[in-house]
Design goal:
With 174 residues, the protein is mostly helical. The protein contains eleven helices and three strands; from the N terminus they run E-E-E-H-H-H-H-H-H-H-H-H-H-H. The longest helix has 17 residues. Bound molecules: zinc ion.
Length: 174
């Protein structure tokens, strides 16, 4: 897990099970449950080995093997390439759906994910979308599918996360 002091609204998973969250995204989220939606999505990219699949597609077998066996000499020299790996549409859908299930199991309100998307979307009107939305467009289909899946989730009790969010945000500076 890495928090990077960067004002752009982004979070991403890179090979090796690493999830990077920009401080800008944490400042844009109005609560821990909003950020949790994006993090759950990124965790699923890690858990489902989406990076490996994307690497095989984009970067070739040599780099994928190097990353798996931990040859960071090769993988490290390709770090830029790895952070810009784009996942397939199927991988994105899987990360959304399994991410929602993960939130439900943890008792976290899955609507937080949609609230953050809506906010980022509204802020980007007329300008370039924030980085995370650029790679994860909140198309009407995506929102409709997320809403439908949220409706199908088991009604497990949801508890607010015991995190003093304003304190977390102020610790990030601006
Ligand atoms: Zn994604």
């Amino acid at each position: 897990w890495h928090v990077v002091r960067d004002p752009t609204l982004n979070a991403f998973a890179i090979p090796g099970g690493i999830v990077v969250v920009h401080s800008g995204l944490m400042l844009a989220a109005d609560g821990a449950d909003e950020l949790a939606g994006v993090i759950a999505h990124e965790i699923e990219h890690v858990e489902q080995r989406h990076s490996l699949r994307a690497m095989l597609r984009e970067a070739g077998l040599r780099l994928a093997v190097a990353a798996v066996i931990g040859d960071f000499g090769i993988a490290g020299s390709a770090a830029g390439q790895l952070s810009s790996l784009s996942f397939s549409r199927d991988s994105e859908r899987e990360a959304d759906e399994l991410g929602l299930q993960r939130l439900a199991r943890a008792g976290i309100d899955p609507d937080g994910m949609l609230r953050l998307f809506a906010k980022l979307d509204a802020e980007s009107k007329g300008q370039a979308p924030p980085a995370w939305l650029a790679s994860h467009p909140t198309t009407p289909e995506r929102i409709a599918r997320l809403r439908e899946r949220i409706g199908q989730l088991p009604s497990t009790p949801r508890r607010p996360l015991a995190i003093d969010w304003p304190a977390v945000q102020s610790s990030l500076g601006s």
